[in-house]
Design a protein that fits this description.
This protein is of the alpha+beta class. The protein has 2 domains: 58 residues, no CATH class; 179 residues, Galactose-binding lectin (Jelly Rolls, Sandwich).
């Protein structure tokens, strides 16, 4: 490899380095996915809506019957007035360290095992500084014993709120997570909820979250590296064809 070729190759490496993993993932800053739902990685925390209410909801791994393989089964007790946070121990992203977020995309498969009406309630969940922020409220639908794929996004920080109150939570409502360059660590999971009625059982599989970086951040990085690429090209003799990487 000639020195001229090496100079351009180094510039290409610098571009990928500055843009980070998003350049290699179709402009995503991070991608989190799971189709196994190991109980050593997923935890559940159930909250009661009001102090006078009651109910139960559990999340467990089932080894077979998923889409494919194992899946996460959520079972809600009768007349429950609860929501449950299902969080993965490794699905974490820190805007202040890894770049601020424009939006996030969410995909998941669901199967009504035992349900009624429009099935179970669920949505993308964020936890930041110990507080939960809920994405748009969704429903699994009326189809029973069939896996159905759901895709949602992009969702900005203002589309996540702490709308769900629960017993013992003194915090005011209407807050949003912080996706900005100073934002602290964000943990990703999903929530399930039930507001009354008979108990239901729903399966969840193929969880996926894509973190979309702020476009201006990528543009600034690309502009900075563009100067390096331009310098590398100016230093080459005109007879050398541009090298792609």
């Amino acid at each position: 490899m000639t020195r001229r070729r090496l100079g351009l190759s180094c510039a290409c490496v610098a571009l990928v380095h500055l843009l980070g993993p998003s350049a290699a993932r179709g402009q995503y800053a991070a991608a989190f996915s799971d189709g196994t739902f190991s109980p050593t990685q997923w935890t559940t925390t159930t909250r009661i809506y009001q102090s006078s209410a009651s109910g139960s909801e559990t999340g467990t791994q089932v080894a077979t019957g998923g889409n494919p393989g194992s899946f996460w089964q959520v079972q809600t007790g009768n007349n429950s007035l609860v929501f449950t946070a299902h969080m993965h121990s490794d699905f974490k992203y820190t805007p202040s360290a890894s770049g601020f977020i424009d939006s996030v995309r969410f995909d998941i498969d669901t199967r009504n095992i035992s349900s009624y009406g429009n099935g179970g309630n669920f949505g993308l969940l964020i936890r930041q500084n110990g507080k939960y922020y809920f994405g748009t409220y969704e429903q699994t639908g009326s189809i029973v014993n069939t896996w159905v794929s759901h895709g949602y996004g992009p969702r900005t920080q203002n589309q996540f709120t702490d709308d769900y109150t629960y017993a013992g939570d003194p915090s005011p409502l209407g807050n949003h997570p912080d996706f900005s360059p100073t934002g602290s660590q964000i943990e990703f999971g999903f929530y399930t909820a039930q507001q009354s009625g008979s108990g239901i059982t729903v399966g969840y599989d193929n969880y996926s979250v894509l973190v979309v970086p702020e476009p201006t951040g990528l543009l600034a990085a690309a502009t900075a590296v563009g100067g390096v690429l331009g310098l590398a090209r100016r230093r080459r003799p005109a007879r050398i064809s541009p090298t792609t990487c």
